[in-house]
Each structure stands twice: as structure tokens, then as C-alpha cells.
Design brief:
The protein is built from 8 helices and 13 strands. The chain is globular and about 50 Å long. The strands form 2 sheets. A 7-stranded mixed beta sheet has the order 4-5-3-2-1-12-13, covered by helices on one side. Strands 6-7-8-9-11-10 form a 6-stranded mixed beta sheet. Strand 4 and strand 5 form a beta hairpin. It is α/β, with parallel strands linked by helices and 284 residues long.
Length: 284
């Protein structure tokens, strides 16, 4: 069996998914093979390039600066924890990232890899849009595709939005790719009525038969729906945020299990079984 832990919209709290997975493994005895993150990581290595929303939130919540504080310069305690845990994170870009920083890393990355590393510990890997990845362990494998950034109805070229070179890569993929297991995006597929979402995500779901699609971004609660293609189960992951009581809520950590041809998911009841709160989670 292969097992993934899936999160969305961590907004700088990079250590939190790793700590939750570590605790979950100890609590359940179930090994996690990889962490999946659906964008809005909050990758800002310095304050100068932070967007206004991140700066505004950071004035009240230092967690928004988690990448700058903990993942740019090596911390021996964090390094020891991550090396002992030994679980990689695979992520897609969201709209709240330093895209100049990420572009530079992507452009200088190994062209043969479908991802590039972004942190000093080499544990966080950002998926290149349109390049499939196969994760394996001794028992199973799972195929996934990532589409980063968000859609735009107005044709703007800001790096927040899906870029033309990424769109062209997706078009090339559709000519050769068969069915895949999961699609990871930040944005949702575009809605025909209101026009919100990404047409590129909708195109991916029309061209490839995925079993599951996971996304974040919208601010909606956790929910599952059948995609318009009538095949894919589309899952909105709740943002990994502490509520007004300082607690994490169900729907912000999903466990996916693949056992041969069978894929299933479950939402972890964080409030009930993992008692992290906003003030203490860093020290657990």
C-alpha cells in the first residue's frame, strides 16, 4: 500500500504538515510515503518580495513568514527532525508565492526531473506544471500531475496566473498521456455559470481520466463532488488554518491510500485526535 497526506494553503506554515504527519504516524502506526500540498505555500525567502496580503497577515501572525524564518537558512533542530522523518513534500505553486524566486529555481533545475527543490533541507519539491510524476514504494506506485498558479479570464500575464509555456506543455502532454491517478492543482476548474476558476484545470480533466483531483484556493469548506467529466472525484481541501479557538479542523488533512488498483481517501479528524493548537504546535 502507498499512502499520501494531502494539504492545501499552508501560507508559510511549512513545518506544520511535517509535524502533523509525524504525529499521525506515531498515533496510527500507518507510514506516510509523501506529503502533497495544493499551493499557496507562502514561499517568500525575504520580505521585499512579499505580496500585500501576506504582509498584512504577517503583522498579526508570524507563521506567515515560516519559509523565510525556517527554510532558507539551515536550522540544526529542524534538519534533524526532517531527516529523521524522511518524507518529502510535493507541492504546486499557488497565487501567494514569490514567483521570481521560484522561476529562477525552476529554470536552473534538472530538466529531466518533473520537480525542483526550493528549501535548504531539500525536502520540498515543487511540481513543474504539465510534467507527470510517479511515486513508488516497495508495494505500489501512484501517478500524479500538477498544475500550479491560478486561472485568469482576462488574459493577464502576471506570474500569479498560468503561463503560456506551462499551457503549451499541458497541450503536448494530452497527445501522449493515458489515464492517471491524481491531479493536484491550486485553482478549481472554471465554472460555466460564474466563470470563476481555471480553464486549464478544466481542460486537464477533459483530456485525462484522473481518479481524484485535489485543490485549494477558493476558501470553501472541505467537500467532494463529481467533476464535469463524470469520472473524477474532485476534492476541495480546507485551508490549513487555526480557527478562532486556535484549533485545526477536519478537512484540512486528507489521507489517500492506494492498494493495487484501489484508491481511497479519508479526512483526518484533527480536532479530535491531533491536539495541536496555534500557540503550541511548534514545540510539539
Amino acid at each position: 500500500m502507498l499512502r499520501l497526506a494531502i494539504f492545501a494553503d499552508i501560507h508559510g506554515k511549512f513545518l506544520l504538515p511535517f509535524k502533523l504527519v509525524d504525529y499521525y504516524q506515531a498515533l496510527t502506526g500507518q507510514a506516510i510515503d509523501a506529503i502533497i500540498q495544493c499551493g499557496d505555500m507562502g514561499v517568500f525567502p525575504e520580505k521585499n518580495n512579499m505580496d500585500k496580503a501576506t504582509l498584512r497577515h504577517a503583522r498579526h501572525d508570524r507563521d506567515e513568514l515560516g519559509f523565510m524564518d525556517n527554510f532558507v537558512k539551515m536550522d540544526s533542530d529542524i534538519a534533524k527532525f526532517l531527516n529523521t522523518l524522511n518524507i518529502p513534500m510535493y507541492a504546486v505553486r499557488g497565487n501567494h508565492e514569490d514567483h521570481d524566486f521560484l522561476d529562477n529555481l525552476e529554470n536552473n533545475s534538472d530538466k529531466n526531473l518533473p520537480y525542483f527543490h526550493i528549501d535548504c533541507y531539500q525536502k520540498i519539491r515543487v511540481l513543474k506544471t504539465g510534467f507527470p510524476l510517479i511515486l513508488t514504494n516497495d508495494a505500489d506506485s501512484i501517478s500524479l500531475l500538477g498544475i500550479g498558479r491560478i486561472g485568469d479570464r482576462k488574459g493577464r500575464e502576471h506570474k500569479t496566473f498560468i503561463q503560456n509555456y506551462e499551457r503549451e506543455q499541458l497541450k503536448k502532454l494530452y497527445k501522449t498521456c493515458g489515464d492517471m491517478d491524481i491531479l493536484i492543482t491550486h485553482d478549481k476548474p472554471i465554472e460555466s455559470i460564474r466563470g470563476y476558476g481555471s480553464s486549464d484545470v478544466a481542460d486537464a480533466l477533459d483530456n485525462i481520466a484522473f481518479c481524484y483531483h485535489f485543490y485549494g484556493h477558493t476558501g470553501e469548506p472541505y467537500h467532494e463532488t463529481l467533476a464535469d467529466n463524470g469520472i473524477t472525484q474532485s476534492v476541495k481541501i480546507k485551508e490549513l488554518e487555526f480557527n478562532q479557538k486556535g484549533k485545526l479542523e477536519t478537512g484540512s488533512m486528507i489521507i489517500l491510500e492506494k492498494d493495487k488498483d484501489n484508491i481511497s481517501i479519508k479526512s483526518v479528524p484533527l480536532f479530535d485526535i491531533i491536539h495541536f493548537d496555534k500557540e503550541s504546535w511548534r514545540y510539539v
